[in-house]
Amino acid sequence: MRILAFETSCDETGIALVEGTKTPGGFLFETHKAALLSQAHLHAPYGGVYPTLAKREHEKNLPILFKDFEHETYNAIAVTQGPGLEPALWQGIEFAKKVATERGLPLFGINHMEAHLISSLVQEGRLEHTTLPILALLISGGHTEFVLMKEWFQYEVVGKTLDDAVGECFDKVARMLGLPYPGGPEISKLATQARETGLKDHPWQLPRPMLNSGTCDFSFSGLKTAALYALRDAGGIQTLSADKIAAFAAELEDAIAEVLVSKTRKALWDTEIKTFVIGGGVAANKYIREKLEALIKDEFPNVELRLPQLSITGDNAIMIAQAALARALSGKDNAADETLAAVGNLSIAS
Ligand code: KG4
Ligand code: ZN
Predict the structure, then answer these.
(1) How much distance in Å is there from the Cα of 157 to the middle of ligand 1?
(2) Does the pTM exceed 0.85?
(3) Residue 253 in contact with ligand 1 by CB distance below 6 A
(4) In which residues is substrate bound (predicted)?
C-alpha cells in the first residue's frame, strides 16, 4: 500500500510518499519520495512560530512541493489533523482533501503525536517485533507527555507538562541568550562545547522543577523564569563571557535532562512496560538521549529502548505516512471524509 502524506501542523511543510508492507514481525516502510520545507528562518525574528505567517507559507509551498508528486501513484492520502496551529493545519487538510477528491482516494486524518510515537519505534524502515506495553516520552516544541500504549493505537496519557513544553523552554531560554530560533539545537551546541572544554565549574544553579512531586507530570515555566532571573542577577548577557554563557546552556540542559530522567524512572516503575521510546523534536538532543540510554541500561535492563533516527525526530510527512500505514495495514485506519476538520488541541488519548 502506498500513502501520500501531508504535514503542516507547525513551521515545516512536508509531503511524503511511503509504501508499507506487512512482514512476519510487523511492517516494512519504504520512503519513495519526501519533501520538507522549513520556515524556521522566517519565524526566527519572532522567537517562535507566528501562526498567520505559517499559514501563508504552507499555502504557498504546498503546490510547489506537490509538483514533484503529481505523477506518482498511491492508494490513499493522509494528513495531520492535529494537534498544532489550526490555521496551519487547515492548509494541509484542504490540500489533502482536494487531492483525495480529484483522485477518488480515501483520506486519513492522523494525530501528529501518534505519528511522532509510531515513527520513533521504526528502525531502518522496519516496525517489527515490538513488545507491548509501550511507554513513550514525547518531547517537542508544543508537547511534553508520557503516553502508555497497552494495545496498539490505544493511548493513555500518564503524565504531562502542567505549563510549558520542554522544547518551548529550550527555545525561550535560547532567546534570552540571544540565540536564534529554534533554540534547542543551539543550546545543545553550546552545552556540549562547555562540557568538552571543562567548563563544568560554573556559578549557575537552576532548579529541577517537580522532581519530588510524586507524579509523572512536568513543569517548565518555572525553570524558564529562574533562567531569566539568574541572567538578570548576573548583570545581563551583555556582561557575560562566551564561556559563562556556554556554561549556562550546559546547566539548563543538565536541569532538563535530570528532570526527564527522574520522571522517566518513576513512569517506568509505575507502568511495568516492555518497550520505552522517545519521540518529538527534542528527542534529537544527544545529551538527553545518552542520559536516558544510561538509565535504561543501568536500572531497567529488561526494557527495550527505541531511540528514533535523527532524520525523523523533527516534524516531517514521512512520520504521518508511517502512522497512517501502520493503522491501515492493521485494519485500524480512521478514514475521514470531506468533513475532516483541524483540531488544534487534539489529544492522543481521544
Ligand atoms: O517536534 P518538533 O519538530 O515540532 C513540534 O511538534 O513542536 O519539535 C520542535 C522543538 C523545538 O522546540 C526545538 O528547539 C526542539 O524541538 N529541538 C531540540 C533539539 N532539536 C530540536 N531541543 C533540544 N535539543 C535538540 N538537539
Ligand atoms: Zn512535532
Answers:
(1) 20
(2) yes
(3) no
(4) 138-142, 171, 184, 285
63: exposed, middle or buried (C-beta count within 10 Å: 0-12, 13-18, 19+)? exposed
87 lines ligand 1 (CB under 6 A): no
Residue 139 annotated in ligand binding: yes
138 annotated ligand-binding residue: yes
SS3 state at 249 = helix
User: Would the CB of 185 count as within 6 Å of ligand 1?
Assistant: yes
Q: Would you say 11 is a known binding-site residue?
A: no
The pick from 117, 140, 188 for probing ligand 1's pocket by mutation, whose C-beta has the most ligand atoms within 8 angstroms, reads: 140
Q: Is the CB of 61 under 6 A from ligand 1?
A: no
Query: What is the per-residue burial (b if ≥16 Cβ within 10 Å, else e) of 99-132?
Result: bbeeeebbbbbbbbbbbbbbbbbbeeeebeebee
- CA 27 / ligand 1 centre spacing (Å): 27
DSSP 3-state percent helix, strand, coil across the chain (nearest 5): 45, 25, 30
Domains delineated in the chain:
2-122+311-330 (3.30.420.40), 134-306 (3.30.420.40)
The tens-digit pLDDT sequence of the chain (350 residues) is 999 999 999 999 999 999 999 999 999 999 999 999 999 999 988 888 899 999 999 999 999 999 999 999 999 999 999 999 999 999 999 999 999 999 999 999 999 999 999 999 999 999 999 999 999 999 999 999 999 999 999 999 999 999 999 999 999 999 999 999 999 999 999 999 999 988 766 789 999 999 999 999 999 999 999 999 999 999 999 999 999 999 999 999 999 999 999 999 999 999 989 999 999 999 999 999 999 999 999 999 999 999 999 999 999 999 999 999 999 999 998 788 889 999 999 999 97
